[in-house]
């Protein structure tokens, strides 16, 4: 009996040591290790999931609306470590589209191992890339590749950073008998007679550190609340503001959607 009890105690102690060893290995940072961090964008309307076309919603001034299109560019992502070091990814551009589930995850590759406590990103396409040669604007930045997305203004050679479209009963009826709204935001500053800069940088603390390791590729889950478009720095009513295609008039919308983004949680699952 004593032998069996001793063996049980030794087994239990060995198990505890093994668990502690594994945890220590996960906590240790190998400076040569790299992995990815994925930003997962969950578009919502308040506390409701965003459903295109069929979803029925009410904004802060009691206007009903549905959403038919929600597209926006994410670029210039950076992550801050707990020691204050910032790791930047300036040449990664993502087009988030509610209509395309595959686009809702933006993955940054070759992130150095570390504990990251903050994420920053730009909504839009920076001025340097916006005016670069077409050979440097490929993938989601290719002006000819959008199809029905229409995320490029040919009339002023600029990207539409943010496109929000839908219908509302408070919007005047058009020639086809529909009541559509179109809120398009662009403008990187410095353009002839159109100097408004509607690029906006979002900086968010992470709810828990993203722990990049050789075997851990974190996922940062973000909520994106489109109700903030109506209620932020400026109060927006669809009855009054329903067709925005001007850089200058789009500025209040850009100010409002700075508040759309929040971090819900971070997954640090081993891969």
Strand-helix topology:
Elements (H helix, E strand, L loop, with lengths): L1 H26 L6 E12 L2 E2 L7 E2 L5 E18 L4 E12 L7 E8 L1 E10 L3 H4 L21 E2 L4 E10 L12 E7 L13 E13 L6 E7 L17 E2 L6 H7 L3 E7 L4
Parallel strand pairs: 1-12, 10-13
Antiparallel strand pairs: 1-2, 1-6, 3-4, 4-5, 4-7, 4-9, 7-11, 8-9, 9-10, 12-14
Provide a descriptive summary of the structure in words.
InterPro entries: MbnP-like_dom (IPR046863). This is MbnP family protein. Residues 35-244 form the Copper-binding protein MbnP-like domain. The protein has helices at 2-27, 127-130, 251-257; strands spanning 34-45, 48-49, 57-58, 64-81, 86-97, 105-112, 114-123, 152-153, 158-167, 180-186, 200-212, 219-225, 243-244, 261-267. Strand 8 (152-153) and strand 9 (158-167) form a beta hairpin. The chain folds into 2 domains: 1-30; 34-267, no CATH class. The radius of gyration is 23 Å and the shape is globular. The strands form 2 sheets. Strands 3, 4, 5, 7, 8, 9, 10, 11 and 13 form a 9-stranded mixed sheet that branches. Strands 1, 2, 6, 12 and 14 form a 5-stranded mixed sheet that branches. By secondary structure, it is mainly β. Helices cover 14% and strands 41% of the residues. The two termini are 43 Å apart. Residues 17-25 have low confidence and may be disordered. It has 3 helices and 14 strands.
Q: Which key terms come to mind for this protein?
A:
MbnP family protein, 271 residues, mainly beta, 2 domains, 9-stranded mixed beta sheet, MbnP-like_dom, 5-stranded mixed beta sheet
